[in-house]
User: Fold these one by one.
Assistant:
Number 1:
Amino acid sequence: MRNLSKYYDSTSTLEDNYEALCDPALSVSTDRQQVNDLVLNFVIKYLARYLDLDEKEQDTNLLRRNIKERVKKITGALLQEYDGEGFSLGCLMDIRKTAALVKEIAFNDRFKPEGEKPNDFFRSVDFGSGTGILLIASLIAARRKDVHEIVGLGFEREEGAINKANSVLSGLLSEKREFATVIKADITDPNTFIMLERESTHFWISETIDRSIPRINVQGTTLSFKGSQQDIAHALVEETKDPFIRVLQHSLTHIPDFEENVKNGSIAMFPDLFNGDYEPNVYYSKMTLKTGGNISQPLMIIGEEFNLHEDLELVSRRW
Ligand SMILES: C[S@@+](CC[C@H](N)C(=O)[O-])C[C@H]1O[C@@H](n2cnc3c(N)ncnc32)[C@H](O)[C@@H]1O
């Protein structure tokens, strides 16, 4: 185990870390350690900012204790119950996997901005944006391509999460040309998607699998996003609380070029539903995360490269 203080640099701000990650000269392949350190610092500082803590706290143990205390106050419990505002906070606090997702999104260069001039316009949308951290990671990806007009749009249903995310995002972006906002909307409602019909969506994020195992009625169809629209429609859904499949379905219907963009890897950031046969008890162990291009990783191993001091794991874990 590495020492906790190595993962946290108290001399830089959240804004410093954001700007450093936006630098196109920083390469995910040749500067791997630097990228990982920056991403981890960014995630920890985002978490501290989200919880109104001093993100430049020198004493990392104190920072960790303060984070735990603050979370206890907000949720009234140690996130054993994954619901309400605590749900997305629980995700953010899973620092190892959050860092892996942020890195994957921020360094994705497969999407294609557009406009009259190349790189004129970029829009990312996060369906179920929670704390906003994955949405902001997508803006880093656009900045790294030096896109002129950058817009991030989050849809979320939890008031607390919406307000908090908007406050952190507007503070972080206050002096930047890029813009991000979270609005209250139900991502299972097709009307939410109608507002996306008129402009392209270049980056699509939806981390909306949850602990209620969806009852997917496969009807003999192999459900994979590589399949056709038909496959996905067939797979719909009996009494599931999980919005993911509906978000996919509405995206296929309302977002211009969605299916094509997913297939060519230029937009995508989503868990694949499963590989092979559906077996409820091994749901998560069978799932992979598809992140555009050909990258597909089992959920269970995501984030291993961010192996942390055990103290930093705090109290939550996604999958
Ligand atoms: C797994 S969390 C995503 C966390 C987020 N990626 C983050 O890192 O903060 C799923 C989010 O989707 C939101 N959500 C679930 N169902 C929704 C719905 N029908 N409409 C809008 N938001 C929804 C939840 O409130 C939660 O914040």
Number 2:
Amino acid sequence: MDSQPLSLVSSLSKAALFLQVYLSSSPYTCKFCGKGFSYPDTVKRHEMVVHLGVFPYKCHFCGRGFQSRDSLRGHLPDHTGEKPYRCSHCGLEFNWRSTLHRHIKKLHNRR
Ligand SMILES: [Zn+2]
Ligand SMILES: [Zn+2]
Ligand SMILES: [Zn+2]
């Protein structure tokens, strides 16, 4: 049904495809679990987040760490009250891109 945002589904299948391709020929492997990655940045982030519990994107208001810039951006409105994602159809503002996508799909029925 429409409970899952389209973007999530497509990025998940993209990630699965990515893994399939690079598991066989991955130049950068995680030194903890041996998982292969295609970019040094990706393996570094994987090691930090999954194995070391380090979150590279820090909130400069409260010091909380986040795995991705997107999660950090979604957290910032807690401090600033700003909502970075704006619906281009009706102008409503949202903290999260996924919430905006769901809103557009539900109310404006666009892809
Ligand atoms: Zn690993
Ligand atoms: Zn914060
Ligand atoms: Zn709207």
